[in-house]
Specification:
alpha+beta; D-Maltodextrin-Binding Protein, domain 2; Dipeptide-binding Protein, domain 1; Dipeptide-binding Protein, domain 3; 3 domains; 4-stranded antiparallel β-sheet; globular
Length: about 575
Amino acid sequence: MSRRTITAAVLLAVATVLSSGPAAAQKSGGTLRAFVFTNQPSASIHEELTVATVAPFMAVFNNLVLFDQTKPRHSIDTIVPDLAESWAWDASRTRLTFKLRQGVKWHDGKPFTAKDVQCTWQRLIGEEYFRKNPRRVWYTNLKEVTVDGEHQATFHLSKPQPALVALLASGMGPVYPCHREAKDMRLNPVGTGPFKFVEFKSNDSIKLVRNPDYWKPGRPYLDAIEWRIVSSLATRTLAFVAGEVDFTFPGDATPPVAKQIILQAPKAICELVAGNVNTNLLVNRSAAPFSDPKIRQAMMLALDRQGFNDILHEGKAVISGTMLPPPYGSWGMSPEVLNALPGYSGDLAARQREARRIMESLGYGPGKRLKVKVSTRDVQNYRDRAVILVDQLNKIHFDAELEVIESSVWFGRMVSKKYAVALNLTGAAVDDPDSMLKENYACGSENNSPTTATPRWNSFSIGSRRRPMSASARPWCGRSSAGWPRTWPTRSSSTPSATAAGNRTSKATCCSRTPSITTGGSKTCGSTDEIGARRSSSIHGAAVSPRLPPGPYRPANCAWPDASASDRVDHV
C-alpha cells in the first residue's frame, strides 16, 4: 500500500531522465537480466499465491484483458484488450461476453479458441483440475463459461459483479491452454505470450526466449529474459551495483538500502513507488491459549506500527488500513477514520500498558511469560518484520522467538495451520475489495489461513456488490479489516485488532537500467512489461514483486539509465 510522503528529490531525478529520451527509439535484441527473491513452488500462476511465480512467468501468457500499462493509476476505466478484442455486459449485468482475437497460436502451434477460455475458468471454479486454487474465491459468482463460437465466450454470473473485469485484467488472470494438463503448466508452461518458456532450474534460474510468432507484429523487442533465483538481499543488491542485472526486484531496496545503492551507483535511477501489500499478524485461534480473545486483544494493543515504519522505512511510510489508500487507491480509509479505530488511536505507551494489564489478568507477568514461536517465511522482508514483531510482543510478557520456514512450503504451512503465531505479507493483485477482502478474509478462501470470517462477513464480502460503490460507501472496505466491533472479523482474530504487524503504506526503492514507467499507484522503473515482457498490475506497487511489508508499503525501484535496455522498451 502507499501514501503521500514521497521523497521529492527521488521523483525529480526520475522525471528528468524520463523527459530526456525519445519515446520511440526502440531497438531489437538483447537479454533482460533480473533477480527473483525466492524459489518458485511451480510455474503455474493460477496455482501459486506468490508473486515470485507471477513475475517471471507472466511473460509466457496473455490475459483476456489487461490494465493499460501507460496509465499512472489502474481502474475499470483503464482496462484495454489483450486476447479479447472487445467485451460487453448484458442488460442484467450477469453475462459478460468477450469477442476474441483470431489467428493467435499457443507456443506449441495449436490455435487459441474460445474453448481455452472456457476450460481455464471452468477449471478455476471446479474442484479437481488444479492441485492448489488460491483464487477460486474470486469467481464465487461465476456459474459457467459458455462457448458462443470459435472466437466468442460468455461468463455467466449468479449476480452482478462489477469488479470481475478488473480481476481478469490482473497478473493473476492468464488464459491457459485447454489441451495441457495442470502438471504440465507447473513444469513446462505453454502460453500465447511474447516469450516462450525454455527452462526452470530450481533454486537457480528461469529462462525465456522471444516468441517469433507472437500475435503483436514486431514484438517483443528483447531476445530473451533471464531470471536468477537469489535469496540473499545483500547479494542481489551488490549484483545490481556491479551491473549484473538490469533492475532491482520491487521491495528489495528500502530507503536505507536505496541510499547505499545511490552512493555506490550514482547513475542508477531510483524512485519510490506505491506497494499494495499488508503485513499481517496471524494468530491460530484453534491453538491454545490463543483461542482466548483477550490474548489476541493484548497482542493487537502491543503493536507499534510507527516503530515498523521508523526502523524499516526511515519514517517514509504512512500507516493505513487494508485497502490501498488515496491518492494511490480508491478504497482506503482516510487518516481521520483510521486514527479513530482501536489499536490505532491513542497513545502507544497507554495501549501497551493496557496490553500488559490484560496479560497479567490471565496469569502472565515478568516471572511467567507466554512462550511462543513466531513463524515467518525465509525471505528477508519477512524476517526483518518478524524480528520487530517478536520484540514488540516480548514487551507485554511474551517469551517469543523467531521460527523461519523454508519459502517454498510457507503457504502450505499457513493453509494447514501449522503455526501458533505468524507474520505474513499479503499483496493484492487489484485495488478492489473483490480481490483483497474476498481472497484474504472470506470463508473458504485458501489464503484466509486464520479462517477469520462469519456468515455476516461472507454475505458482505462475497458478491454483495451489485454495482460500483459510491464514494460514501467505500469507507466500509477500509474499516472492515482494520478494527470493527467484535462481530466483524479481523486478520488475526474476531476482536478489533486485525492486520496487525503494521498496516503501513511503506516505501522502498527499485533500481534498474531502464527509464521508469507508471504502474498501479505510482511510477516504477525497469518493469519487465516495458522491455518486452508482461507484468502484473498493482502487485506490491511495482511491475513484478512479492507479498511484502507492513501494510501500506513503498518500495523504491531503481534502474540503470543506459541504452542496453532503455532503447529496447516494448509496451507489449
